[in-house]
Every structure is written in C-alpha cells, then in structure tokens.
C-alpha cells in the first residue's frame, strides 16, 4: 500500500532566537504515531517502520530532535536534555494539531517517549519502547559515550575527519542500514560534544516512581547481549508499567536485518491501541 510522505518543519522560539526542527509525515488521518530516533542518529532510521505503520492506516511522523539529522544543531549543551527533547515532541504534537499519539522511540528515543508520558500523559495514547536506557545501563553508557564527547570537544579533527570520509559516499548506492551508519558519522564536533554533554550530565530517564505512574499501554522491545541497553532494564520497565508487554529480540540486529516479526508486533500494537475506545479513559484516570 502506497502512502503519502511529506517533509515539514517546526520553529521553536526562545530568548536567543529560534531553532528549526524537521520532520516527515507518512500517511494521514487522526491516528497519530510519532517515532523518535536514537542518540546522534537521523530520523531516517525509522523509515521502514514508519512506512509499515502508515500502510496499516496510521498517521506517522518521524522527527529529528534538535542536534540531530536535518534539524538545527546549536553547539550549546544547555539546550540538550531528555526533558527538553520531551518538550520538543509535545511542541510537535501541538504544531500538528495531534491531541494524542502513540510515542515510539529507540534508545534515546525510548527515554524521550518516557519523558513525554511523565510530563504530558494526556497526550500519550500508547508507548512503543525499544532499548530503554535505565539504571543498569549507566556504566556502559559512560564507557561508550564519554570518550566520544571528549574527542569531539578536545580533538575535533577526529569527528571532522569522519565527516570528510563519510559525506561524499552516495547513500543511494548503499544498503539501508549502512547509509544510516554513514549519516550518523556525518557530524560536526561542536554539536556532537554539546548533545553528549547535555544528555550525559542530565537525567537519563524519569525515576522509577515516576515511571510507575505511567498508565498508557506500552510495548517494550528489549535486546540480549547489549550492555548499553541491557535486557534487565527492559524487564524492569515492564514490571513497573501496569499496562506493558515485552518482546525479546534475539539481538540489536533483529529489527534491522530481519524486521518482519518485530515490525508486525509494533504495527499490531499501535493499531490495537487506536482501536480500543477505553484507552483514553484509562490514561485520563
């Protein structure tokens, strides 16, 4: 089933001026789904899932948060935090005129979805969470991302050199996920350092007490053999949320290389959430 796709933009006003956020709409209607990318990754990573969801009759929006993809990338760490990212998603819903949406995300995007569910629960029809980064991921996250932050800040040529190498490679000639990796490596050092500083030194996710108050139906996808996104975090989140179910992926590669099973689960979940007239009443209470 072919669905329409269009690119839009949203401007966030602030004391210093305004920042531009870019997004893509897939499909139409008032059954909204918003998909949020992983850390430093572009919104295009969710293109296959967005098309599958839109083909099922949902109105899907993929967004580049500030500092990512085609959106503006200020080199100021003060503008980056999970809370700020959550506010950007709510601003996007306001801009689109979407009263509610299923909010989905991967890694960073998963935590941003949780932020939206805590700060604006009335806007969340459901949650589609892949690879949440919670209490058991702190040490591995520090090991993985603090060195990148230091290199971007103090050895910027390391990031710039990767950009010089990756930018000329034609994405259309590459397999989809190799293209996503190339896009992720195509960065400027200042914004990379700022994004990582803001994320690492801010709160990573809502507290357990806050998470336990989330009443939206939730599908959680967790991966084994992934220290930055340990499966125990997905299990913990599943036990905290009263209306959560969990799917175990064989690895971080399953949804990338063999997506049929998990994509079907995600589509079935999002459609069922919108088809259930009792969901809004449960969220309101």
From TrEMBL:
The keyword Hydrolase applies. One of its GO terms (cellular component) is membrane. Signal peptide: none annotated. Residues 32-136 form the AB hydrolase-1 domain. One of its GO terms (molecular function) is hydrolase activity. It holds the Pfam family Abhydrolase_1. Keywords: Hydrolase. The keyword Hydrolase applies. InterPro entries: AB_hydrolase_1 (IPR000073), AB_hydrolase_fold (IPR029058), AB_hydrolase_sf (IPR050266). PANTHER family: HYDROLASE, PUTATIVE (AFU_ORTHOLOGUE AFUA_2G14860)-RELATED (PTHR43798:SF33), MONOACYLGLYCEROL LIPASE (PTHR43798). This is Alpha/beta hydrolase. It comes from Nocardioides gansuensis.
């Amino acid at each position: 089933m072919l669905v329409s796709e269009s690119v839009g933009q949203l401007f966030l006003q602030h004391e210093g001026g305004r920042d531009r956020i870019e997004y893509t709409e897939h499909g139409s209607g008032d059954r909204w789904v918003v998909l949020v990318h992983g850390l430093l990754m572009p919104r295009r990573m969710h293109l296959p899932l967005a098309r599958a969801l839109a083909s099922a009759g949902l109105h899907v929006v993929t967004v580049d948060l500030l500092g990512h993809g085609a959106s503006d990338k200020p080199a100021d760490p003060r503008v980056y935090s999970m809370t700020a990212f959550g506010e950007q998603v709510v601003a996007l819903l306001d801009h689109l005129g979407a009263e509610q949406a299923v909010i989905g995300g991967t890694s960073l995007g998963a935590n941003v979805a949780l932020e939206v569910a805590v700060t604006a629960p009335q806007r969340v029809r459901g949650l589609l969470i892949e690879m949440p980064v919670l209490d058991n991921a702190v040490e591995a996250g520090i090991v993985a991302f603090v060195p990148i932050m230091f290199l971007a800040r103090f050895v910027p040529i390391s990031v710039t050199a990767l950009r010089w190498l990756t930018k000329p490679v034609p994405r259309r000639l590459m397999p989809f996920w190799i293209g996503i990796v190339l896009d992720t490596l195509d960065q400027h050092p200042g914004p990379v350092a700022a994004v990582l500083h803001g994320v690492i030194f801010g709160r990573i996710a809502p507290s357990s007490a806050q998470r336990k108050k989330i009443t939206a139906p939730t599908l959680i996808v967790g991966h084994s053999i992934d220290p930055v996104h340990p499966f125990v975090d997905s299990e913990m989140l599943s036990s905290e949320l009263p209306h959560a179910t969990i799917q175990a992926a064989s690895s971080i590669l399953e949804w990338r290389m063999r997506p049929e099973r998990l994509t079907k689960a995600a589509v079935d979940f999002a459609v069922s959430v919108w088809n259930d007239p009792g969901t809004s009443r449960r969220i309101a209470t």
